[in-house]
Design goal:
Largest sheet: 5 strands, parallel
Radius of gyration: 47 Å
Helix content: 40-55%
Number of helices: 15
Structural class: alpha/beta
Strand order of the largest sheet: 2-1-3-4-5
Length: 546
């Protein structure tokens, strides 16, 4: 606490009921550089002592109503005057008894009238000197307190800076550790399927294999190719999520059909992993025609991640998944009897690049992105995700999404449900605009069994010329990244001449907004690469017969 010093000019209070004595006193101290304050009674003295910071007081003992002794004792009750130097003086009381009584009340001296001016002058100078020394001491204390406060502030600031530096260092180390772990995981996750793809491709090239072996090797290559694609999609998704670019596209879907498809798929996965003894159960509360409005792609992605983890971490027992309706929400669950999650890992299980370990240090693989992506997707869908687990016993993941029930599915979604095995477009002609030869070969072979006529343009200008000069073109499959003229510009030009010609954009661009950008350029639909044959055929079928 800072001590307040008195004013620059010391204040001396004279207390006497006689104005003549006050005037005499003021003359005595006139040579000193002080301010005189007078009071004609004890009551006035108390008031002025409260209002002023005094250097000292000279008090007459004999005063009506309240004598000097009582006045001083009451002054002492005020904390700031507790140690104020006070000199009593009196013409009536001259015995030692009265002087002793004055000193007992806290006075520093007792003088008798008539007052010797020189003696009073010198005594006041002594106390003023003490006052000045005290003022210097107060000033020094204040300076020390200010310096101490500044030092404490600097120490606190240094502590804050050191704490921030420590946190930054820990974050940098954690970031470096995560980056190293991520690169290590990516290397493993990329090289593992690539090893199978390259290895079995070499075996197929060498020949000498039976038809059964060839089909088995092709299935292995296909499976590992999709593993690589899932890895790339995970990396793209987490990037979209962190940059706020992932877009939710809600549409109608048959929820129970999605669950049944997932059950069939993972039963086959368990068979491939030689885990046929593990049973999968689905818990549904609505009838088979229950239609939900949500983003079916992202919902399936979340369930696929959770059930995939359950398959990975479960060696015995069972896996069950399903949903229940709670008010205006659907609560999904995925339960397994696998290795469980340690309590200390429960807090980090949804963080990026974090992977569950068991006591036997078994490596389960994966990027460590699936749960982080799933949690973020659920939140984008308007729900939340949490987990319950008991180590070596069971794990249950829960998540909710809003219940948006509809009564009828849209025509486009109905088209997606229709499976056509034999397409016949022998009277149709399709222009494939693609600068990469291998991509053209793929689309050509995917369309071969439909008997459709095919033309090939290797750049945007060539595509424009063909569409202008060949009225038999029924549909254009337009790559976007093309030499000379890109697919967007080519589409705009073609549509100016043939506005009814259907154009489907094909692109490897994965960022959100690509579909909208394609539609704005005039394309009628959009297919993202890599393209699945059944998706290509289904989309071409939507437009080529119309």
């Amino acid at each position: 606490m800072t001590i307040k010093p008195m004013c620059d000019k010391p204040k001396i209070m004279i207390v006497d009921d006689d104005d003549v004595q006050i005037n005499i006193f003021e003359k005595f101290v006139g040579e000193l550089d002080v301010e005189c304050i007078s009071a004609n009674s004890g009551f006035e003295a108390l008031k002025k002592a409260k209002e002023n910071n005094l250097a000292m007081a000279v008090v007459d003992v004999s005063m009506p109503k309240m004598d000097g002794y009582e006045t001083v004792m009451k002054m002492r009750e005020d904390g700031k005057n507790k140690h104020l130097p006070i000199i009593f003086y009196s013409a009536v009381y001259s015995e030692n008894y009265y002087a002793q009584k004055g000193l007992e009340t806290g006075a520093v001296d007792f003088i008798q009238k008539p007052i010797n001016p020189k003696i009073l002058h010198e005594k006041i100078k002594v106390f003023l000197n003490i006052y000045e020394q005290n003022q210097k001491r107060i000033e020094l204390i204040n300076q020390l307190e200010d310096t101490n406060k500044k030092l404490n502030d600097e120490i606190e600031q240094r502590k804050v800076i050191e704490e921030k530096l420590r946190e930054a260092k820990e974050q940098a180390e954690e970031s470096e550790r995560l980056k190293t772990a991520f690169l290590s995981n990516m290397s493993h996750e990329i090289r593992t399927p690539m090893n199978a793809i390259i290895g079995f491709s070499d075996l197929l090239v060498k020949g000498g294999l039976s038809t059964k072996q060839q089909n088995e090797f092709i299935e292995i290559i296909n499976s590992n190719t999709y593993s690589l694609l899932n890895l790339i999609n995970d990396i793209i998704d987490i990037s979209k999520i962190e940059s706020g670019l992932l877009v939710i596209k809600k549409t109608e879907c048959k929820l129970n059909k999605i669950l049944e498809q997932l059950k069939i798929y993972f039963e086959k996965e368990l068979e491939k992993l030689n885990k046929n003894h593990i049973k999968i159960f689905v818990d549904k509360v609505k009838d088979e025609d229950f239609i939900l409005k949500t983003d079916p792609l992202r919902l399936k992605q979340v369930l696929n991640n959770l059930i995939g983890n359950a398959v990975k971490f479960t060696d015995n027992g069972s896996i069950s998944f399903g949903y229940k309706i709670i008010d205006n929400k659907i609560e999904f669950f995925v339960k397994d009897t696998g290795i469980g999650i340690k309590s200390k890992q429960m807090e980090i299980v949804f963080q990026r690049f974090m992977q569950i370990e068991n006591n036997n240090t078994k490596l389960y693989g994966g990027t460590g992105l699936g749960l982080a992506i799933s949690k973020n997707l659920v939140e984008l869908l308007g729900g939340k995700m949490w987990v319950e687990s008991e180590e070596n016993k069971e794990t249950i993941f829960h998540f909710t999404i809003p219940l948006e029930e509809v009564t009828e599915i849209s025509e486009i979604e109905k088209e997606k449900e229709v499976e056509v095995n034999n397409y016949n477009w022998k009277d149709k002609k399709i222009l494939i605009v693609e600068d990469v030869e291998s991509n053209f070969w793929f689309v050509r072979e995917a369309l071969r069994k439909t008997h459709v006529k095919i033309k090939w343009a290797k750049d945007g200008n060539e595509a424009i010329d063909i569409c202008k000069n060949d009225d038999e073109i029924d549909l254009v499959l337009m790559d976007i990244q093309l030499p000379i003229v890109d697919g967007y510009h080519a589409t705009r030009v073609i549509k100016k001449h043939r506005k009814d010609l259907k154009i489907i954009a094909q692109t490897a661009y994965a960022m959100p907004g690509e579909r909208e950008k394609s539609l704005q350029a005039g394309c009628d639909e959009y297919l993202g690469k890599p393209i699945r044959v059944k998706d290509l055929l289904r989309m071409v079928n939507r437009f080529i017969d119309n």
